[in-house]
Amino acid sequence: MLIEAQGISVAIGGGIVLDDESLRCKTGIMTALVGASGSGKTTLLHCLGLLLPVDKGSILIDGNDVTRYSAAARRRFWRDHAAFVLQDYGIMDEESVAFNVTMQASFIGKRVSGNKERLKQSLEQTGLKNRGNELAGHLSGGEKQRLALSRAIYKDANILFVDEPTASLDATNRRMVIELLADFTARGRTVIVSTHDSEMIAACGAIHQIGSSNSSH
Ligand SMILES: Nc1ncnc2c1ncn2[C@@H]1O[C@H](COP(=O)(O)OP(=O)(O)OP(=O)(O)O)[C@@H](O)[C@H]1O
Ligand SMILES: [Mg+2]
């Protein structure tokens, strides 16, 4: 799926956060959103993922203007096409690691359900093999980040929105996550990553510098 921003601007609390940003995020290419801390990477990622409304400009998906999508249409987009790995992880601490991946449980006994093989693979791919029965709240920050990625892999969405995926990881896990995202992209997915990490940026096929598409510059 092709996701585009055309001249989008966002003001939060009276301050301009994004000013006339335009970019195209193509299928099969990993796009990096780069810029200094506070430049608006997370804000732009949220706008592209329809999590945050824009004040000016348009968001397009496969050429269709979705800027004024209804709440129901946005929910359908999230459910059917998108996966998010955001800075606050979205992990449910009171639930098991496995439940956090499949997000499905049986009514009786609250046993985790879903596709067992895919669950196993998505945990293995992020280095969380055999950790499915642990309480998610007991994981470290970096492990929770990888758990959020396992959930996205399990969902196998068309579009992956990822905020600073390597920020709190050591070199080995960083490389693993970068390879994983590159592999996901190569399988015909659209991957958009906000990042400071030079290795992560090097693995991206397109780089969008915040502020660079501003027509007044
Ligand atoms: N909900 C909010 N309320 C007030 N200000 C906000 C809000 N969200 C973002 N901002 C401001 O918008 C600017 C951009 O924030 P954003 O989180 O998009 O930056 P970033 O490039 O992702 O930074 P970092 O690299 O530190 O994650 C910052 O100055 C921030 O303070
Ligand atoms: Mg950010």
From TrEMBL:
A GO CC annotation recorded here is:
plasma membrane
Species this protein is from: Lederbergia citrea
Which GO terms of the molecular function aspect are on file? ATP binding; ATP hydrolysis activity; transmembrane transporter activity
Q: Does the keyword Nucleotide-binding apply?
A: yes
Q: Which SMART domains match?
A: AAA
InterPro entries (UniProt xref): AAA+_ATPase, ABC_transporter-like_ATP-bd, ABC_transporter-like_CS, ABC_transpr_LolD-like, P-loop_NTPase
| Name of the protein described by the UniProt record | ATP-binding cassette domain-containing protein
Its keywords, alphabetically, are: ATP-binding, Nucleotide-binding
In terms of PANTHER family, this protein maps to: IMPORT ATP-BINDING PROTEIN (PTHR24220)
